[in-house]
Amino acid sequence: MPGRVLLAALLVALALPASADAAWRLTADGQPLITTHTGSQDQVFVCPPGGTPCVEGGWNTSEHDRRAFAPGETAVGTTFEVRTAELGTDRSPAWQGQVTAATPPAITGPAVARARAVWTAGTWQGGWGDTRNEIRVFACRTTTATGCHSLPAYLRACGSACDTITDRRSDGRPIPDALAGFFLFVSQDPSPSDRRGIPVPVIAKPGPWNDDRPWDFKPEPRTQLSAPLGPIKPAFTLTLRERPFRLDGKLRLGSVTCPARCEVAVTVVGGGKRKHESGFHAEGTKAIAAPYRSGKLTVRVYVDGRLERTIRVVAR
């Protein structure tokens, strides 16, 4: 998977026109950031709205291995040009104002393991007019987002290979049993997506969590965080008696509690009788019972099609 991502990035780079040396990005506080390759002879110009002549800016910062120009607060309608003698001129889209959140992201669904959680991205206003979301889904021990683990598998078309992705809405995935007691969050950061700012997923370790070590969520200035979904309740609580008893002609084996509707199946073998099989739906607490039989018995209980407990008991 990492090789495929790198190959995709290389193909994107080869497909770009020769003049594509500049990139229209964002500063941490949502203002313009124009970057170009270090060592190039580019010049950056600020072109005010209304046809006013462009004036030279000047590279005043850097981003990774690129020279950068951060003009600070910028008037709506301003454009920028990056000019080189060899490659010509790149002109930015018109600036639409400081990037701010219009609506926050959300994660919804029953707060129960095995139920489906669906995240929805929020929206932005301002920027270059092409702002997309960098989404992260994670589970935390607290409502203040501490003790967290990333959940890359919740990112549609991403599987477990990337930590963030640009998308609008998930297709809904069952909440793993292991997340009982956790709170689910989705966060988003704005990412420009002009022809040179094509997003590439961030590589992370495969698996249900991208790292076993918990971390505390520390947002960037532009990060938007959803309200928590949780705490996640267990999909069910199953209690089986080692010594079942007889009541009203039934063998009382125990009980099952499902916060959301679940399907329960029970088999009882032994006691000199044919195998007993029964099933029912539970929402809340329901008793588990079978027609009375005595002797040494093997009881198996399935919840939502999965074998959850096997117990050997003696009924008298």
Secondary structure layout plus pairing:
Blueprint: H1 2-15, E1 23-26, E2 32-37, E3 43-47, E4 55-56, E5 61-63, E6 66-69, E7 79-84, E8 88-91, E9 100-103, E10 106-108, E11 116-120, E12 123-125, E13 131-140, E14 149-150, E15 173-174, E16 183-192, E17 224-225, E18 237-247, E19 250-270, E20 273-291, E21 295-303, E22 306-315
Antiparallel strand pairs: 1-2, 2-6, 3-4, 3-7, 5-6, 7-8, 9-12, 10-11, 11-15, 13-14, 13-16, 16-17, 18-19, 19-20, 19-21, 21-22
Question: Explain this structure to me?
Answer:
This protein is mainly beta. It folds into three domains: 2-91, Immunoglobulin-like (Sandwich); 100-225, no CATH class; 237-315, Immunoglobulin-like, CATH 2.60.40. The protein has one helix spanning 2-15, and strands at residues 23-26, 32-37, 43-47, 55-56, 61-63, 66-69, 79-84, 88-91, 100-103, 106-108, 116-120, 123-125, 131-140, 149-150, 173-174, 183-192, 224-225, 237-247, 250-270, 273-291, 295-303, 306-315. Strands 18, 19, 20, 21 and 22 form a five-stranded antiparallel sheet that branches. Strands 1-2-6-5 form a four-stranded antiparallel sheet, with no helix packed on it. Strands 4-3-7-8 form a four-stranded antiparallel sheet, with no helix packed on it. Residues 1-22 form the signal peptide. Keywords: Signal.
